[in-house]
């Protein structure tokens, strides 16, 4: 393997830069040239390429976002577009491609591997919604950002004796809500994986008030949604003042935690090794603190299992 390329795709995640750095430094150490592709698959189709040397990844390990920029690229689902992208890679003599992103980005990588381009996927998304890996790059930072926001909301809601309803990201996956809810001492946590009615959530709040809780914190995953309506209903039905906060994209930015940087370094390093071993259509993950790799088709077909044990712990704590 003489020349590889790297791109970031889908929603950015803290730690993506640390992963880019790991890929570039590992490749260069092994005399492999690295091409950075800007703006994900969009940049790939348009040939938005630039060579990356050691200095191209200096001083980025601590930076959130992605220096390669990113985009969602629905056109990449079209086989004609994918063929064009594969052709561009062939023209530039690029033998392997490392894609950092979520499941949508992996679908694109899978499509390219079917066309003979060696591809490796690294899980980069704050959602932690990929079944084959215990953690995705960015999840740890995002849960810490949310926990920090919850700490701040606690100050004001306990001063006013209010209920604070916090909506966090996670379209189909409640992990951010669950982990940050547990870390932040939530009264109740609403996630898409567990059906909880509005009435049940309100009952939890009322129970909390009976137990002389100064304030109540309700964490709602984006996949459940409706934080503002829930706050209104709580206020109407219980008479306790309630406020909603939708954290939004603040959760996606910020300095990556040490955990995310180390995860990114381990995964990025392994991705290059896999390409050097001639592997393709693999995704890198972590299971029981061991870096693993898996067939991309298998990984995408896996169904996520919700952490019932952690959910029970969180609920028992409330
Ligand atoms: O995929 C990560 C994610 O942050 C989701 O949690 C969220 O639903 C989505 O991206 C938001 O995407 P966008 O930035 O394109 O609005």
From TrEMBL:
Cofactors, names only: Mg(2+)
Domain Phosphofructokinase: 3-275
One protein family per Pfam: PFK
A Gene Ontology term for the protein's cellular component: 6-phosphofructokinase complex
Record: residues binding substrate: 125-127, 162, 169-171, 222, 243, 249-252
Subcellular location: Cytoplasm
Active site location: 127
Binding, Mg(2+): 103
Pathway: Carbohydrate degradation; glycolysis; D-glyceraldehyde 3-phosphate and glycerone phosphate from D-glucose: step 3/4
Binding residues for ATP: 11, 72-73, 102-105
Protein's name in the database: ATP-dependent 6-phosphofructokinase
């Amino acid at each position: 393997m003489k020349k590889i390329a790297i791109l970031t795709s889908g929603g950015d995640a803290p730690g993506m830069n640390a992963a880019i750095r790991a890929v570039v430094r590992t490749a260069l150490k092994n005399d492999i040239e690295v091409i950075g592709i800007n703006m994900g698959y969009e940049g790939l189709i348009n040939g938005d390429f630039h060579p990356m040397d050691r200095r191209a990844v200096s001083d980025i390990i601590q930076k959130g976002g992605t220096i390669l920029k990113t985009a969602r690229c629905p056109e990449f689902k079209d086989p004609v577009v994918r063929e064009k992208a594969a052709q561009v890679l062939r023209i530039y003599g690029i033998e392997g491609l490392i894609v950092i992103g979520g499941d949508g980005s992996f679908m694109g990588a899978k499509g390219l591997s079917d066309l003979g381009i060696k591809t490796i996927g690294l899980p980069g998304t704050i959602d932690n919604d990929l079944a084959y890996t215990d953690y995705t790059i960015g999840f740890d930072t995002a849960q810490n950002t949310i926990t920090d926001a919850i700490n701040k909301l606690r100050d004001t809601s306990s001063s006013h004796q209010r209920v604070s309803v916090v909506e966090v990201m996670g379209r189909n996956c409640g992990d951010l809500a669950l982990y940050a809810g547990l870390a932040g001492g939530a009264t109740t946590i609403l996630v898409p994986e567990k059906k909880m009615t509005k009435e049940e959530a309100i009952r939890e709040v009322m129970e909390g008030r009976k137990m002389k809780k100064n304030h109540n914190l309700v964490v709602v995953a984006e996949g459940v949604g409706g934080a503002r309506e829930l706050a209104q209903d709580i206020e109407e039905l219980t008479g306790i003042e309630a406020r909603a906060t939708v954290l939004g994209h603040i959760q996606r930015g910020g300095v990556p935690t040490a955990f995310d940087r180390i995860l990114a370094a381990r995964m990025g390093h392994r991705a290059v090794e896999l390409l050097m071993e001639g592997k393709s259509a693999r995704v890198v993950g972590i299971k029981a603190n061991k870096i693993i790799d898996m067939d991309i088709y298998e990984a995408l077909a896996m169904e996520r299992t919700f952490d019932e044990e952690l959910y029970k712990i969180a609920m028992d704590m409330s």
